[in-house]
Amino acid sequence: MTGSTEDLQKRDKFKKIRTVIATVLIFLYNSLGDSMEKYKTVEREANDFFIEKKSRFIGYAKPVNTQDEAIQFINKIKSKHWDATHNVYAYVLRENNIQRYSDDGEPSGTAGVPVLDVLLKENLVDVCVVATRYFGGTLLGAGGLVRAYSHTSKIAVEAAGIITMAKCSILEAEVDYSFYERLNSLLSSFGANVIDTQFADNVKVKLSVKKDKQEELNTKLIDISNGKYSFKYLNSEFAKV
User: Fold this and answer.
1) What is the dihedral of CA 85, 13, 96, 150, to 10 degrees?
2) Are 47 and 61 in contact (CB under 8 A)?
3) What is the pLDDT of residues 38-78, one digit of tens each?
4) CA-CA 20 to 30 A from 179: which of 17, 144, 226, 236?
5) Quick one: which of 91, 86, 109 has its CA closest to 101?
6) How far apart are CA 206 and CA 202, in angstroms?
7) For the chain, what is the total number of helices (H) and then of strands (E)?
8) 131, 70 Cβ separation under 8 angstroms
């Protein structure tokens, strides 16, 4: 599947531009390091597809935290679509600022890089995308491939849902059933996210809230419960906000 001389020139130009963009983004990630207080990723594993000139493109996206998780996901999709013409992939990790991609047999720079570009332009990390193609018999050319794989990555990410993760305080409160609705209203007003709720003799709620709201939230709980309840601090971690 080779393109014309003009296509090849355009492809080389695109590759140089993307290399510059990727280098700048890597520098920024390295500058931020572990001090990054928030980041964007995808919420869940999901997929979507479209057809371009009889070629079927299927985009898969999944949140991953390590290179091993990314590779496992890639291998799972490759195994599922063992008969596909190409299984292109790209992933970006916070861990060691890793960025990887593969064209999987497509002309260099026309597949893996466009998939990666979508992740970089959306400022996504801890995410892996696999773009599967079943060739339909019509050549798309270099420009057509770039557009097709970019679109595949984009619809996969959209299906998976973009979320923001921020450093949050993980808290826990145990209240009686008569106070449970008031607690839920309080959490909602502070934008807190409930992680787990256990119903036993009392109701135990585990939640995440932005670190800068923790003290105010606890003060408010003590106030509206007349000192009966307060939050127990568990730990600090990245959580959806």
Assistant:
1) -40
2) yes
3) 899 999 999 999 999 999 999 999 999 999 999 999 999 99
4) 236
5) 91
6) 13
7) 6, 10
8) no
In degrees and rounded to multiples of 5, residue 16 shows phi and psi of -65, -45
Looking at beta carbons, which pairs linking 75-78 to residues 24 or more positions away fall under 8 Å?
Answer: 77/130, 77/132, 78/130
28 CB-side CA count, 13 A:
10
CB 98 within 8 A of CB 67: yes
> Are the CB atoms for 161 and 42 separated by under 8 Å?
yes
The residues, any chain, with a CB within 8 Å of residue 124's CB and separated by 6 or more, are 40, 41, 42, 92, 157, 162
- Whether residue 153 contacts residue 89, with contact meaning beta carbons closer than 8 Å, is answered with no
**Residue 84, C-beta contacts closer than 8 angstroms, at least 6 positions apart:** 132, 133, 134
Pairing mode of beta strands 203-210, 99-102: unpaired
Could you tell me which residues are beta bridge partners of residue 92? 99, 127
Instruction: Give the residue ranges of the chain where pLDDT is below 50.
Output: 1-2, 23, 26-27, 29-35
Per the rule left: phi > 0, alpha: psi between -120 and 50, beta: everything else, 161 is left
Tell me the two tokens of residue 221: 């709980």
Tokens encoding 229: 């309840």
Taking only the tens place, the pLDDT of each residue in 175-189 is 999 999 999 999 999
